[in-house]
Design goal:
single chain, alpha/beta, TIM Barrel, eight-stranded parallel β-barrel, two-stranded parallel ribbon, 16 helices, about 40% helix, hydrolase, 6-phospho-beta-glucosidase activity
């Protein structure tokens, strides 16, 4: 029985290109779907998250105007593009074994449908991978992390259009061949199941006034399933030793009560979330699919070869983000909602504390999630995201005492260790995000996750100086002790 982390456990941190890189006007980069989101300090706070879930046609149109006066934070990030050597050196100082990152599709194919790649973009990632290799850090790379080319959304209608499979596979094949000696672990799509909640960044579909949004979501997902399988095929042709995983957002669901209706509703919601890994990991559509899609009035358009493609190229491992759990009720009318739980909403669990953004914190739920996923799939697991967004105070002498973050991470890492003792095969952990960056959901900078503070405010003002937080040295000791030293 294992009671400690494996000797070769991959400790590290995670970011996404659309949140850290910046330099959107450098090196021939095109606009992505994430470059459309604004930050306006005069906007009501509830709208900061609302726009993540509901993109409008007007906002997409305004974002393409080069003279727009609005501030688009994800075009600026924290300038990792020019600071990557400094940032990677800090990751190495912490002892990172792995760095989960993404390649911006729009740096390689700015519009997405070009026949030839942009060499400047390819060369940038060559430099990043070489720098990681210099420090002995293994990259785990997401190919599409909410940054598909905006042009494919506006001109082709997003992933509902089957042509995107061709464009994506060209992009994937290009980077697989280019970096076959530099990258072993790949994830085709970040949080592929989140198309249910924010279709614009997931499949490039504007939800506003859409005649049949559920059809668009699941048709887009089907095309991504095919693209993921074909990406694995292409990857193995370039590097037979590479590993292709999938990535979902996993918000553990529990019944609010022992009412049989609550239990059944939880089963149904769980299936909606795990449908995506069921297809990608098992290689076929599960038996409950027919009823689930019929209830949504969805009829998938498929081709004869689709079933075999999915069956022939299942993923090698499953990665997931875990931030919270959520209670489910079949009768939520008279219950308090968990408004901060972005993925499934749900009912507020009275046994759990909440973060400043209303996310319900449930470390023990991570152990349950690991066991559920391993029992279901019997494939290696990788925790690709886990962290606490909070307002950090920079004090005199560059001191940031983020004990609340240390407590959050320590409690979750303890539960990973418990899951390993349970017999779960989990081979890595990358906390989100190892350096402060633009929030995906609210486009804020002040919602910070990192071990490294970046001197920048919500409107992009600041020196961008990197400053170590208290959690920096704490995580350094966690890695050096392979998860044994977890005290502050």
């Amino acid at each position: 029985m294992k009671t400690t982390f494996p000797e070769n456990f991959l400790w590290g941190g995670a970011t996404a290109a659309m949140q850290v890189e910046g330099a959107s006007d450098v090196g021939g980069k095109g606009l992505s779907v994430s470059d459309v989101y604004i930050f306006d300090e005069n906007m009501p706070k509830e709208q900061w998250t609302d726009q993540w879930h509901m993109m409008t046609h007007k906002q997409v149109e305004e974002a393409q105007d080069p003279h727009s006066p609005k501030y688009y934070p994800k075009r600026h990030g924290v300038d990792f593009y020019h600071h990557y050597k400094e940032d990677i050196a800090l990751f190495a100082e912490m002892g990172f074994k792995v760095y989960r990152m993404s390649i911006a599709w729009t740096r390689i194919f700015p519009k997405g449908d070009e026949l030839e790649p942009n060499e400047e973009g390819l060369a940038f990632y060559d430099r990043v991978f070489d720098e990681l290799n210099k420090h002995g850090i293994e990259p785990l790379v997401s190919l599409s992390h909410y940054e598909m080319p905006l042009y494919l959304a506006t001109e082709y209608g997003g992933w509902v259009n089957r042509k995107l499979i061709e464009f994506y596979v060209r992009f994937a094949s290009t980077v697989f061949e280019r970096y076959k000696d530099k990258v072993k672990y790949w994830v085709p799509f970040n949080e592929i199941n989140c198309v249910k909640h924010h279709p614009f960044v997931s499949v490039g579909v504007v939800e506003e006034n859409h005649p049949h949004i559920e059809q668009a979501k699941y048709q887009g997902a089907h095309h991504q399933f095919i693209a993921s399988a074909l990406a694995k095929k292409a990857c193995l042709e370039s590097n037979p030793n590479a590993k292709i995983g999938c990535m979902i957002s996993y918000q553990l669901l529990v019944p609010y009560s022992c009412d049989p209706d609550d239990i059944q509703k939880t089963v149904e919601k769980q299936r909606e979330s795990l449908f995506f890994t069921d297809v990608l990991a098992r290689g076929y559509y599960p038996g409950y699919t027919a009823r689930m899609l019929a209830d949504k009035n969805v009829v998938l358009e498929t081709e004869a070869s689709d079933e075999q493609i999915i069956r022939d190229y299942p993923v090698d491992f499953i990665s997931f983000s875990y931030y919270m759990s959520s209670a489910v009720s079949a009768h939520p009318e008279n219950l308090e909602g968990a408004v901060g739980n972005l993925i499934t909403g749900g009912i507020k669990n009275p046994y759990l504390p909440t973060s400043d953004w209303g996310w319900q914190i449930d470390p023990k739920g991570l152990r349950t999630a690991l066991n559920q996923l391993f029992d279901r799939y019997q494939k290696p697991l990788f925790i690709a995201e886990n962290g606490l967004g909070a307002v950090d105070e920079l004090k005199e002498g560059d001191v940031i005492n983020d004990d609340y973050r240390i407590s959050y991470l320590r409690d979750h890492i303890l539960q990973i260790k418990e899951a390993i003792t349970d017999g779960v095969d989990v081979f890595g952990y990358t906390s989100w995000g190892c350096i402060d960056m633009i929030s995906a959901s609210t486009s804020q900078m002040s919602k910070r996750y990192g071990y490294i503070y970046v001197d920048q405010d919500d409107l992009g003002r600041g020196s961008k100086r990197r400053i170590k937080k208290k959690s920096f040295d704490w995580y350094k000791n966690v890695i050096a002790s392979n998860g044994e030293q977890l005290d502050k």
